[in-house]
Amino acid sequence: MNGKRTREAILDFQDYQAAKGLLAKGTAAARKAALGKVLGILPAEEAEDVTKIDLDDVMIRFSNLQGRDYTPGSMSTYKSRVRAALEDFEAYLSNPLGFRPSVNRRDRPTRVEKPTTKTQPTVETHEAVVKVATPAFDTTSILPIPLRADLIVRIQGLPFDMTAAEARKI
Length: 170
What we know:
The protein is mainly alpha-helical. Helices cover about 40% and strands about 10% of the residues. The chain is built from five helices and two strands; from the N terminus they run H-H-H-H-E-E-H. It has helices at about 5-20, 25-40, 55-65, 70-95, 165-170; strands at about 140-150, 150-155. A two-stranded antiparallel sheet has the order 1-2. The radius of gyration is 23 Å and the shape is globular.
């Protein structure tokens, strides 16, 4: 790696990690795909140093531009992958020799020994579970509305296909 902080450099870094065995090939490929799509919305000047981007802001922009193509779960996964890739990239740039990727390793569950003595049967109790419906806020429905030259208000929860009659009610 050459110390560059560009969009292309972080994409190449994913290949480097896979080739060196620092990341599983599937993980590196998934991160690279997420990076390519999310950082692909950035103009060239913003992509010159990806370590300085505000990921939350970029994800809002990505959602506004391409959010209809993704579920909220996919958007969350993309954000998680891009965040992990950015953190690893910054860690590598600051200390290449001591770098270790931040991968959550899935430990296999250990076998639980079955008890050899018989236990008393337990009496099951049933509790009533009351589910309260709460509105789920879709991360893809954040709408930026420029009120002034120096002020942008972001409104969440509005449908993208809102009619003029519905807007007048607000």
